[in-house]
Hints:
This protein is of the alpha/beta class. 33% of the residues lie in helices and 17% in strands. It is built from ten helices and 14 strands.
Amino acid sequence: METLIESGEQAIKLGAELIRAGEIVAFPTETVYGLGGNALDSSCVAKIYEAKGRPADNPLIVHIAKIEDIYPLVSEFSERNKKVVEKFMPGPITLLFPKSEIVPNSVTAGLKTVGIRMPKCEIARKFIESCGTPIAAPSANASTRVSPTTAKHVYEDMKGRIPLIIDGGDSEVGIESTVLDLTRGIPTILRPGAITAEMLAEVIGSVRTHKGEVISSAPAPGMKYKHYAPTVPMVVAKDMNSLIVEYDKQYKNGLKPLALIRGQVVSSMGDRQYVNLGFTDSEVCRNIYSAMRNSEKVCDYIICIDLGENGLCKSVMNRVLKASGGKMV
Length: 329
Ligand code: TXA
Ligand code: MG
């Protein structure tokens, strides 16, 4: 199958036609690109799992264009949850509700809850609205690969497997949405993202944070898989000193290392190879996945500086630690 990359109104129109014909289509969102299909049709959902090579026990998020689109998909909607929805949707967050009958079990991997997300990205919302149905969509990478933040990334993984990639340029946020389970007494973050625990606690009082990298009893089944991994080994350096020591050690071992660092410290690298992730936390967040994808093509060992625990960087480090299998130097 030929995979087209198109942008603009035409792309949205073609994408919606393909979805209505039962196909799957990649589309941009502000977090990462998604691989969408009709969420209410199990055969479309099956195509998504197949194109990604995704295990069937890892549920998909259902994407909507308007707040009202939530109601048919859920069996319960409390006042507290209404507050969360009104404050954070549209935005980089996925909310888990008890699912209604119309949501196929294949979407939720047999779970009684459904994850719902309304992207802020206008192209995404226009596309979903034109489809006239909720859109089930995981990130548009092949399973276990880094999530795509450009149409080109999607093409690398999905070429020949899907008919269309809607190109909306670079994803603004750069990491996947925060996943928040609203079906528990205390709402619980299953995956940290750009909407932080602090931001949520401000609106709902208390939130349970998701800590630790690989939790087997984790209610987000996806969290137990190795995720977001570049194809070359990656480690995290606790400071610039350790980073330089590790770099030189691997270089002497005959490897071609590459460092992922902040803009402020590039001068300490000398003639060693590096990628500048940016100066601010939001730049670092926007660039991290591109940096991993580009680096794996030009080096054989990635060393990422510890980006710290502040706000957004906590979420970025969650991905970096997964990609490195938690290896620190
Ligand atoms: O930003 C995002 O969320 C992107 C864009 C495309 O919207 N999507 C995305 O989807 O990252 P995916 O499938 O790559 O990650 C969804 C995560 C998985 O870890 C999955 O297990 C979890 O959310 N999840 C989805 N539905 C769930 C449910 N009902 N209960 C528990 N976890 C759920
Ligand atoms: Mg994913």
